[in-house]
Write a structure and sequence with these properties.
- By secondary structure, this protein is an alpha/beta fold.
- The protein has helices at about 15-30, 40-50, 70-90, 115, 125-135, 160-170, 200-205, 210-225; strands spanning about 5, 35-40, 55-60, 60, 95-100, 105-110, 120-125, 140-150, 155-160, 175-180, 185-190, 190, 195, 230-235, 245-250.
- It has one domain (about 5-255): Acetylglutamate kinase-like (Carbamate kinase, 3-Layer(aba) Sandwich), CATH 3.40.1160.
């Protein structure tokens, strides 16, 4: 079955990423393929600052104005996507860079226009397009900038990479969604929580243990579990080739 991995902004520039993904891709392409979704928030923040703008997040999601959309496209679908594809090709992977806007891969609707602006939540995934790439032996590398299916806020919406990866994992019936960050897992008092149930994840968000970007990851993980993905892991690059590493989020009946 297909595996979906989301790579955060900082891990994208780690030299260990290419070899780890190359090792995983060699076996994954024989067992349903591998799909990669990426973030790149630091790139967007740098562009905003260079043009005199400001950066604001609400619960781990970037507040995005109408003027910001082109910057998000430049930072995510442009430089971050192509830089990542280039490094993967260098590692021997047949990677293809696309965005959620290509072939209406990810359709989204506004999440909370009043509070977040042009930020969307995924509602549809063009599964046939993804399977076409996978059947050809390619690794799709996806920027989460998505098509606004409602047309209410324009052509595109800024979708959080974790949310996009969760929607794709559900649509493909993936065996696992791995959210790669720059920490080993969800931390409590400096220690990694190895196993979480949905109720446990909600409690960590409610009491503030998981906040900001980690809160967004847990919310995306809960969405994936609710959609039928049996396991969501949150960890670092080493977890790509180590299935026991990190925090594993599963429904109670799937805990092992």
């Amino acid at each position: 079955m297909t595996r979906v991995i989301k790579i955060g902004g900082r891990p994208q520039v780690d030299p260990a990423l290419g070899p780890a993904l190359a090792n995983d891709w060699a076996s994954a392409r024989l067992n349903g393929g591998l799909v990669l979704v990426h973030g790149g928030g630091d790139e967007v923040s740098t562009l905003q600052a260079a043009l005199g703008g400001s950066t604001k997040f609400v619960n781990g999601r970037r507040v995005t104005t109408e003027k910001d959309i082109d910057l998000v496209r430049m930072g995510l679908s442009g430089s971050a996507n192509k830089r990542l594809v280039s490094s993967l090709v260098q590692s021997g992977i047949d990677a293809v860079g696309i965005s959620g806007e290509d072939a209406a891969l990810i359709g989204a609707s506004p999440m909370d226009a009043e509070q977040l602006g042009h930020v969307g939540t995924p509602t549809t995934v063009n599964v046939a397009f993804l399977r076409h790439l996978l059947s050809g032996g390619y690794l799709p590398v996806i920027s989460p900038v998505s098509r606004d299916r409602t047309g209410l806020l324009g052509a595109a919406l800024n979708v959080n990479g974790d949310d996009a990866a969760a929607a794709i994992a559900v649509a493909l019936g993936a065996k696992e969604l791995l959210l790669v960050a720059d920490v080993e897992g969800v931390l409590c008092d400096g220690k990694v929580i190895t196993n979480l149930t949905p109720d446990g994840a909600r409690q960590l968000m409610a009491d503030g243990t998981a906040a900001g970007g980690m809160q967004a990851k847990l919310q995306a993980g809960l969405s994936a579990i609710a959609g039928g993905v049996s396991c969501v892991r949150i960890s670092d690059i080493a977890a790509i080739i180590d299935p026991g590493r990190g925090t594993k989020l599963q429904a109670i009946g799937d805990l092992s």
